[in-house]
Write a structure and sequence with these properties.
The complex is a heterodimer. Chain A contains 12 helices and 13 strands. By secondary structure, chain A is α/β, with parallel strands linked by helices. A 7-stranded mixed sheet of chain A has the order 1-7-6-5-4-2-3, with helices on both faces. A 4-stranded antiparallel sheet of chain A has the order 10-11-13-12. A two-stranded antiparallel ribbon of chain A has the order 8-9. In chain A, helix 8 links the parallel strand 4 and strand 5. Chain A is globular, with a radius of gyration of 25 Å. Chain B folds into 2 domains: 108-114 and 126-365, 3-Layer(aba) Sandwich (Aspartate Aminotransferase, domain 2), CATH 3.40.640.10; 371-503, Alpha-Beta Complex (Aspartate Aminotransferase, domain 1), CATH 3.90.1150. Helices cover 34% and strands 9% of the residues of chain B. In chain B, the strands form 3 sheets. Chain B has a 7-stranded mixed sheet, sandwiched between helices. In chain B, strands 10-12-11 form a 3-stranded antiparallel sheet, with helices on one face. A two-stranded antiparallel sheet of chain B has the order 8-9. In chain B, a hairpin with a 2-residue loop joins strand 8 (323-327) and strand 9. In chain B, helix 4 runs antiparallel to helix 11 and helix 9 packs parallel to helix 10. Classes of the chains: A alpha/beta, B alpha/beta. At the A-B interface, helix 1, helix 2, helix 3, helix 4 and helix 5 of A face helix 1, helix 3, helix 4, helix 5 and helix 6 of B.
C-alpha cells in the first residue's frame, strides 16, 4: 500500500520491540467478539491510476459551470480565480499544517490570518473580524446566537430577503436553543416592512443585501430603529464581490456583518468547502465566536502573531464557550485573502463593475423576451424575473440545451406560489454570446 | 526620546546580525499592507464599456483601502510566509487527537477536476448525477465501516457533526414527548463536547474517570441514577483522549439506554479502530467522523474539515436536510421538508449539501486503501504509538500503564519533577530539534499532559529519530541544562511570543499609521 511505509518485517520487528506477540494483542481492551475477524465488505486497495479513472468517470457525469452559458448564483458564484491562488494554497506548508497552536512555527498561517481579518474589516466597514467560520449560512446562525447573548433577548426577526437555506439554518439552531425566530414571508419584490416589527423584545434583525432576490436594501433606517429598541442589526451578504461597488454594511450602521466569501479564491465545489466571514464592533469582541489572530512580540522584540482571546473558546471554556466551533475554514480563508491581495481595491472595484455591467446587460436582454418581467429596480449581479410559465420546467428545458439558466425559486420555496420566479446571475464570466444564447433559448421556451 | 512612550518590549531593538534582518533562506516578510500599493492590481480585469449602473443610490462612498501586490510580488509574499510554517510534509506532526497523517496528492488532483470543483450546488439535479453518486457512495462506505444505519453528510467539521448528532437526539426525545436535559460528559472529553451540549440547552454533568484512565459502567450508572428520568445522552470519546479503548463501552451503552438516553460517540479517534471495530456494534447511536483526520483531507492550517455523522436506527429518521436517495431514475436530492417522505428531518445544518471537496478527497482515500488497506491503517497507527511508548516508557512517565495505548500515547510531567522544566518548555525544545510538539496540557485529567499521536504515516526510521531526540532532551533535562528548554525555541522563525499582552490589549487588525508615526519610523 503506497501510503504505508512499513514492510511486514518492520511490523514484526516493532511488535517485538513493544513486547507484543501480535497486533491484535494491542487491541485486547476491545470487548469480546467486537474485534472484526476480517476487513469490512468493501473492495480492496487500488492503484493511483485505477482510482483516478473511477473518480474521473464520476466527475464526467456532471456539467461543469465553465462548459457553457451559466447564470446561477443564489449564494454561490462562478468567478475566475487566478492560477496563482491555487498554487499558494497547495504549498505544503499551508496545506498540510494544523491549526496554529505552536505560534513560533506557524507564523505563515498566523500572519495571513491577520491580513485576512484586516481585509474583512476594510471590506465590511467593521472594526474587528474573526479568522473565518464554516460558511455564510452557519456564520449567520452564529451571529443570531451572539446577538441573543449581547442583548440577553431571544427573538430574532429574519427578513424575507434572506437566502431560504440560511433562514432554515437559523431556524433549526434557534428551535434547538429554545430561542424564537420570526421569519417574514419570501420577499421577491423587495418591499417588506421590517421597521414596524422591531420591538423592545427583539434581539436582532437579520437582513441580506443584496437580498436573495437581488435587491439592494437600505440598511441605515433599520440600524437606526434597532438602536432605538436596543436590538442589533445583523447584515448578511452572499456575494462578497458586491462590496467592491456598494456601500459597506458597517457604514450604514450594522452591528454584526456576516457573509459568504466563496466568490474570492474559492471554486463552486458543489456547495463546500466555503468560507464564512464574520465581523462586528470592537465592543463585542469578547462575545464573538471563532478564532482570532492578534499581534504581539517575541522575546527578541520581533513582531509576531498568535491566536488570542482563547478564553471565549471551547477548548478553554468548555460549556461556557461562545461557540462550539473548532476547525473552521483556514485554507479557504487563505485562498480568499490571496485573491483579495492580487485584486486590491483597484482590481476589486473593476471586478465588481464588470459583474454589474454583465448583469445590467443580461437584464436588458431578458426584458426583451415577451412576457418576462424584471422585479428589481436596483441590483448588483443578480436579479429576479417573473416568467410566463413554470420556472423549474423552463430551467430543465434550457439545461437540456446546455444552458444553466438560474434558480427557480420554487426549488427552495415550494408551495409558496412562487413557481414563475427565476433568480438569475451574471458574473464577469458571462460573455455576450452566453447572454444572447440564454435570451434566445428563453424566447423559444416561453413562446 | 519617544521610545520611552513605547511598550518596554516594543522598545527593545531586535538584534540585527545582517543589514536586511534576514538570515540566508530565513527571510523576514512585512505585512501585505506595508508593501502593497493602491495603484496596481495583480489581476487584469477588463473595464466594462460605458453602461448605466442600476445601484439605486447604494454606491460605495468611501474609497476602499486595500493595497494590492502584482503576481510576482504576491507569490514571494506567500511563499516566504509559507516557509515560516511547520507541516506534515516536512516531518512528524505528532499532535495527539489531531491525526496529522499524510495527505495524498492524488486526492488534491481529483478535487480539482472541473466535474467536482466547478459545479454549483443548485444546478438542475439532472446535471450533477455524478456528484450525488459520489456523496451517496462516500456515505455508504462510512456506514459500512461504522456499522451504523445511516449518515448525515452535511456537517462542516467535527464540532458541527457533534451538533448534528445531539440535535438528532433532541429531535428523537421530542418525538418521544420527553424533555430530558442532562448530558453526561467524562472529564477527559474534548472541549467541543460540553460546548455543544451547552449550546443546545443541555445541562452538562461530569463523569469521573477511574484511576486507570477509563470510564467504568458503575460510574456512569451512579450519575445516571442521580438524574433518573433526565438523562438525554452520554458523550463519550472512544478510544478516549488518554488514548485508551474504553473496555466497558458496551456496558456503558446498556446503562445509558436503560436510563432512556442515547449514546453519542465522539469519533475524533476513529483512526485507531478503522475497519477493526464497528462503533455500531458497541451500542453507539450517533458519531461524527472527522474526514480531515481519519480520512486524510488536509488540515489547511485550521480547516476546512468535514464532519459526516453516522446515526443508529433510532436516530436515522431525524437526519437533517439534504437527503440523497438512490432511485431507479437516478439520484434524488431532498432539499425541503415537504419533499421528505418517510423521514422527519430535524432541520438543516448548513446551506447546500456539505463539504463536497472533502468528500471527493476522502472517497479517493478510501478507494485507494480499500478495506484491507484501511485495516492496516488502524493497525499501523496503533503499532506506531506503542512503538513510541516502548521507546520512551523507561524515561517518561505513563499515567495509565495498565492498558495498551491505541493510536496515541499519553505521558504526564512526573518525569520532569525537580528539573524546573515544564511541559511547555519541553515542547518548545522539541521545536529546536525540528519537530512539531505533541499535544500538551490536554487531556486535562493528568498533570502537564503530553499526548503523542504519530499516525500510520511515519516510517520506523522517522519514529526512531523522534524517540532518540526525545531521549536526548530528557537526559539534558536531568543534567540541568535548563537553558536548552527555557530559551527554546532558539532557531524558529520567532522566539516565544507574548500571549498575555496579546490578550490584554488585543490588536486584531492592521491600522494605517498616522503620518507623524510614519515619519518617525522612517528616521
Amino acid at each position: 500500500m503506497r501510503y504505508l511505509p512499513h514492510t511486514d518485517q518492520d511490523r514484526a520487528d516493532m511488535l517485538r520491540a513493544i513486547g507484543a506477540a501480535s497486533i491484535d494483542e494491542l487491541f485486547r481492551d476491545v470487548p469480546d467478539g467486537k474485534l472484526l475477524k476480517s476487513p469490512p465488505d468493501l473492495p480492496g486497495h487500488r492503484s493511483e491510476f485505477e482510482v483516478g479513472r473511477q473518480m474521473r468517470a464520476l466527475a464526467g457525469k456532471n456539467r461543469a459551470a465553465g462548459e457553457g452559458p451559466f447564470f446561477l448564483g443564489a449564494g454561490a458564484y462562478h468567478h475566475h480565480v487566478p492560477a496563482s491562488v491555487d498554487h499558494i494554497i497547495q504549498r505544503s506548508e499551508f496545506l498540510t499544517s494544523y491549526t496554529p497552536y505552536q505560534p513560533e512555527i506557524s507564523q505563515g498561517t498566523l500572519q495571513t490570518l491577520f491580513e485576512f481579518q484586516t481585509q474583512i474589516c476594510e471590506l465590511t466597514g467593521m472594526e474587528v473580524a474573526n479568522a473565518s467560520m464554516y460558511d455564510g449560512s452557519t456564520a449567520t446562525a452564529e451571529a443570531v446566537l451572539m446577538a441573543c447573548r449581547v442583548t440577553r433577548r431571544d427573538k430574532a426577526i429574519l427578513s424575507g430577503g434572506l437566502h431560504p437555506q440560511y433562514r432554515e439554518v437559523v431556524e433549526t439552531l434557534a428551535s434547538m436553543e429554545d430561542d424564537e425566530s420570526l421569519s417574514l414571508p419570501p420577499d421577491p419584490a423587495g418591499t417588506e416592512d421590517i421597521l414596524s416589527r422591531i420591538d423592545d423584545e427583539t434581539a436582532c434583525v437579520v437582513v441580506q443585501s443584496p437580498s436573495f432576490y437581488g435587491h439592494l436594501i437600505d440598511l441605515a433606517p433599520l440600524a437606526e430603529r434597532c438602536r432605538e429598541k436596543g436590538a442589533l442589526l445583523v447584515a448578511v451578504f452572499t456575494e462578497v464581490v458586491s462590496l467592491g461597488l456598494i456601500e459597506p454594511p458597517g457604514a450604514e450602521g450594522a452591528d454584526i456583518v456576516v457573509g459568504e466569501g466563496q466568490s474570492l479564491g474559492n471554486a463552486l465545489n458543489f456547495g463546500g468547502p466555503y468560507v464564512g466571514l464574520f465581523a462586528t464592533k470592537q465592543k463585542y469582541i469578547r462575545q464573538m465566536p471563532g478564532r482570532l489572530c492578534g499581534e504581539t512580540r517575541d522575546r527578541d522584540g520581533k513582531r509576531g502573531f498568535v491566536l488570542t482571546l482563547n478564553t471565549r473558546e471551547q477548548h478553554i471554556r468548555r460549556d461556557k464557550a461562545t461557540s462550539n466551533i473548532c476547525t473552521n475554514s483556514g485554507l479557504c480563508a487563505l485562498a480568499f485573502t490571496a485573491h483579495m491581495t492580487l485584486l486590491g481595491a483597484k482590481g476589486l472595484s473593476a471586478l465588481a463593475r464588470a459583474n454589474h455591467a454583465r448583469a445590467c446587460r443580461l437584464a436588458d436582454r431578458l426584458a426583451k423576451v415577451a412576457g418576462v418581467e424584471l422585479l428589481n429596480e436596483a441590483f448588483f449581479n443578480e436579479f429576479t424575473v417573473r416568467l410566463p410559465g413554470n420556472a423549474a420546467e423552463i430551467v430543465e428545458r434550457l439545461a437540456a440545451e446546455g444552458i444553466v439558466a438560474g434558480l427557480p425559486v420554487s426549488r427552495l420555496e415550494p408551495q409558496k406560489d412562487l413557481d414563475d420566479l427565476l433568480v438569475v446571475c451574471a458574473t464577469e464570466t458571462a460573455s455576450e454570446e452566453d447572454i444572447e444564447a440564454f435570451g434566445a433559448a428563453l424566447e423559444r421556451a416561453v413562446a | 526620546m519617544s521610545g520611552d512612550l513605547l511598550h518596554p518590549i516594543a522598545a527593545m531593538k531586535p538584534k540585527r546580525e545582517t543589514f536586511t534582518g534576514n538570515h540566508a533562506l530565513a527571510i523576514e516578510e512585512p505585512l501585505l499592507f506595508e508593501i502593497g500599493r493602491a495603484d496596481i492590481s495583480g489581476v487584469d480585469v477588463e473595464e466594462p464599456e460605458d453602461f448605466a449602473p442600476r445601484l439605486g443610490g447604494h454606491e460605495r462612498k468611501a474609497a476602499l483601502d486595500l493595497p494590492a501586490l502584482s503576481e510576482p510580488e504576491a507569490m514571494r509574499h506567500y511563499v516566504r510566509l509559507s516557509q515560516k510554517n511547520y507541516a506534515i510534509d516536512m516531518g512528524i506532526y505528532p499532535l495527539g487527537s489531531c491525526t496529522m497523517k499524510h495527505n495524498p496528492r492524488l486526492n488534491e488532483q481529483m478535487a480539482r477536476l472541473p466535474g467536482f470543483a466547478d459545479i454549483h450546488p443548485l444546478q438542475p439535479v439532472s446535471t450533477v448525477q455524478g456528484a450525488l453518486e459520489l456523496i451517496h457512495e462516500c456515505g455508504r462506505y462510512l456506514i459500512t465501516l461504522t456499522g451504523m444505519a445511516s449518515v448525515a453528510m452535511s456537517p462542516k467539521a467535527g464540532a458541527h457533526g457533534e451538533l448534528c448528532g445531539m440535535m438528532a437526539i433532541k429531535a428523537a426525545l421530542k418525538a418521544r414527548g420527553e424533555d430530558r436535559r442532562v448530558v453526561l460528559v467524562p472529564e477527559s472529553a474534548h472541549g467541543t463536547n460540553p460546548a455543544t451540549a451547552a449550546l443546545l440547552g443541555f445541562k452538562v454533568v461530569t463523569v469521573r474517570a477511574g484511576p486507570d484512565g477509563t470510564v467504568s459502567a458503575e460510574a456512569v450508572r451512579e450519575v445516571a441514577n442521580a438524574h433518573e428520568g433526565e438523562v438525554a445522552a452520554i458523550m463519550l470519546t472512544n478510544p478516549n483522549t488518554c488514548g485508551l479503548f474504553e473496555p466497558q463501552i458496551c456496558e456503558i451503552a446498556d446503562v445509558v439506554h436503560a436510563a432512556g438516553g442515547y449514546f453519542y460517540c465522539d469519533g475524533a479517534n476513529l483512526n485507531a479502530i478503522l475497519a477493526k471495530v464497528r462503533p455500531g456494534d458497541l451500542g453507539v447511536d450517533a458519531m461524527h467522523i472527522n474526514l480531515h483526520k481519519t480520512f486524510s483531507t488536509p488540515h489547511g492550517g485550521g480547516g476546512p474539515g468535514a464532519g459526516p455523522t453516522v446515526l443508529s436506527e433510532a436516530l436515522a429518521p431525524y437526519a437533517p436536510l439534504p437527503l440523497i436517495a438512490s432511485t431507479e431514475e437516478g439520484y434524488r436530492l431532498v432539499e425541503t421538508e415537504g419533499a421528505a417522505e418517510a423521514e422527519a428531518p430535524f432541520g438543516r445544518m448548513t446551506a447546500f449539501h456539505g463539504q463536497m471537496g472533502m468528500f471527493v478527497r476522502a472517497f479517493a482515500w478510501m478507494l485507494s486503501h480499500g478495506a484491507d488497506g484501511m485495516q492496516k491503517v488502524a493497525e499501523d497507527a496503533v503499532l506506531n504509538a506503542n512503538y513510541v511508548r516502548a521507546g520512551l516508557a523507561d524515561l517518561m512517565s505513563l499515567p495509565f500503564p495498565d492498558h495498551p495505548s491505541m493510536h496515541e500515547v499519553l505521558f504526564d510531567d512526573d518525569f520532569l519533577e525537580g528539573t524546573g522544566i515544564s511541559t511547555l518548555d519541553f515542547a518548545k525544545a522539541m521545536i529546536d530539534e525540528g519537530f512539531h510538539p505533541m499535544t500538551v496540557y490536554f487531556p486535562l485529567v493528568v498533570s502537564g499532559a503530553m499526548l503523542i499521536e504519530p499516525t500510520e504515516s511515519e516510517s520506523r526510521a522517522s519514529l526512531d529519530l523522534f524517540v532518540a531526540a526525545l531521549r536526548d532532551l530528557i537526559f539534558a533535562a536531568r543534567r540541568g541544562e535548563s537553558e536548552r528548554f527555557e530559551n527554546a525555541p532558539r532557531f524558529a522563525p520567532r522566539r516565544r511570543l507574548d500571549e498575555t499582552s496579546a490578550a490584554r490589549k488585543p490588536v486584531l487588525r492592521w491600522e494605517r499609521p498616522e503620518p507623524e508615526e510614519q515619519a518617525e519610523a522612517a528616521e
